[in-house]
Design a protein that fits this description.
By secondary structure, the protein is α+β, with helices and mostly antiparallel strands. It has one domain: Winged helix-like DNA-binding domain superfamily/Winged helix DNA-binding domain (Arc Repressor Mutant, subunit A, Orthogonal Bundle). It is about 35% helix and about 30% strand. The strands form three sheets. It has a three-stranded mixed beta sheet with strand order 4-3-5, with no helix packed on it. A three-stranded antiparallel beta sheet has the order 6-7-8, with no helix packed on it. Strands 1-2 form a two-stranded antiparallel sheet. Helix 1 packs antiparallel against helix 2.
């Protein structure tokens, strides 16, 4: 049994609930997906296996999982159009952060010990205790295009880029 399914089943038993087939399917799908799926993406995949499933079941299950501390959500502006979306991810014991490619929408999870340093620095300067941090970096991933720094500015050597609503392919210099 998947870890998320096991943890959810235990939380449901404690709360007097039960593990339905649809909940199990949503949990299994969420655990196998990578890249912080949206509720719509989870629904589309689950719907392939159970055509009777309603989108509200996915939303309610994700909300319950978040309240139970088993998944977290983050708001990301992903993709070339900067479309805002709410994305879900099973909770892990290690805090992670995100890089969003503004070209292709790819979301990359990463960890950094520097975040702990920043949290400690804040606590030292302002008092209190930072419980968690959410850092999202935006830029262009290495798979989307080859970039290099020349004379103080970034140059796209391969891939595509967007200017004024139009998408271009190849070297940016070819279009200047």
């Amino acid at each position: 049994m998947c870890a998320l399914v096991s943890e959810a089943a235990a939380a449901l038993r404690t709360a007097g609930g039960r593990m339905t087939a649809q909940r199990r399917l949503i949990l299994e799908t969420l655990e196998t997906l990578a890249g912080h799926p949206t509720a719509e993406e989870v629904y589309a995949l689950v719907r392939e296996r159970d055509a009777t499933l309603n989108p509200s079941t996915v939303y309610r299950t994700l909300a319950w999982l978040e309240n139970a501390g088993l998944v977290s959500h983050c708001h990301l502006d992903a993709g070339p159009d900067g479309e805002h979306s709410e994305r879900f991810d099973p909770v892990t014991p290690i805090e992670h952060h995100h890089f969003v490619c503004t070209g292709c929408g790819r979301v990359i999870k990463f960890e950094s010990p520097r975040i702990e340093e920043i949290k400690a620095e804040f606590a030292g300067q302002h008092g209190g205790r930072v419980e968690r941090a959410a850092l999202t970096l935006y830029g262009v991933c290495g798979e989307y295009g080859s970039w290099k720094l020349e004379a103080g500015s970034w140059k796209l050597e391969a891939g595509s880029w967007k200017l004024g609503g139009f998408r271009y392919q190849g070297s940016k210099d070819e279009h200047d």
